Amino acid sequence: MKKLLTITLATALLGLASLPARADDTQAAINAMEAYLEFVDYGGATIFPEQIPQDEWKKFFVIDARDKGQFDKGHIPGARNIEWRQVLAQRNSIPKDKPVLIYCNVGTLSAQAGFALRLAGYENVRILQGGFSEWNAKGGFDAAARATAAPKCDDNQIEAAESSNCWPSF
After folding, report:
1. Digit-coded pLDDT (tens) for 43-58
2. SS3 letters for the chain?
3. Sign of CA dihedral 102, 107, 110, 116
């Protein structure tokens, strides 16, 4: 019984000894987040699909932060599937010397993963605004070209084409 009490007391003391370290770790994390939030620009390094010309996509290390099932159903070609919860655990496989683009379905989970990576020292991370859904809706790799192309006139606008922003298609 005395031996059991000694073991229990020793275990409790070891646990108590680690409390200040945990408090210090928590405070360090809070300080890092506070410093980041004071520094980061409005938008938190988000980028829209139409801001990336088609020939620029190959310069990015693209991370699909969704789960494997969603990734398997469809993803941006060339993307690597690293679930958002795993980006820090797999950070050694993420380059710091080239732009990193991270996305999920609509941008919520990838924003959290991007925030974590930026706190870990990755200043090269961008979040795809609107995620995979918006990338698809805006034309995928052609989003930038579509965004800069003049809209086509419908039949009712052809007569007014000179005063409108569209081009007649004949």
Report:
1. 557 899 999 999 999 9
2. CHHHHHHHHHHHHHHHHCHHHHHHHHHHHHHHHHHHHHHCCCCCCEECHHHCCHHHHHHCEEEECCCHHHHHHCCCCCCEECCHHHCCCCHHHCCCCCCEEEECCCCHHHHHHHHHHHHCCCCCEEEECCHHHHHHHCCHHHHHHHHHCCCECCCCCHHHHHHCCCECCC
3. positive
Taking only the tens place, the pLDDT of each residue in 77-134 is 999 999 999 999 999 999 999 999 999 999 889 999 998 998 898 989 999 999 999 9
Q: For the chain, what percent of residues have pLDDT higher than 70?
A: 66
The Cα–Cα gap between 140 and 79 comes to: 13
Residue type, 118: R
* Residue entry with tokens 């980006």: 87
Q: What domains are there in the chain, each with its CATH number?
A: 46-147 (3.40.250.10)
Bridge partners for 9 per DSSP:
none
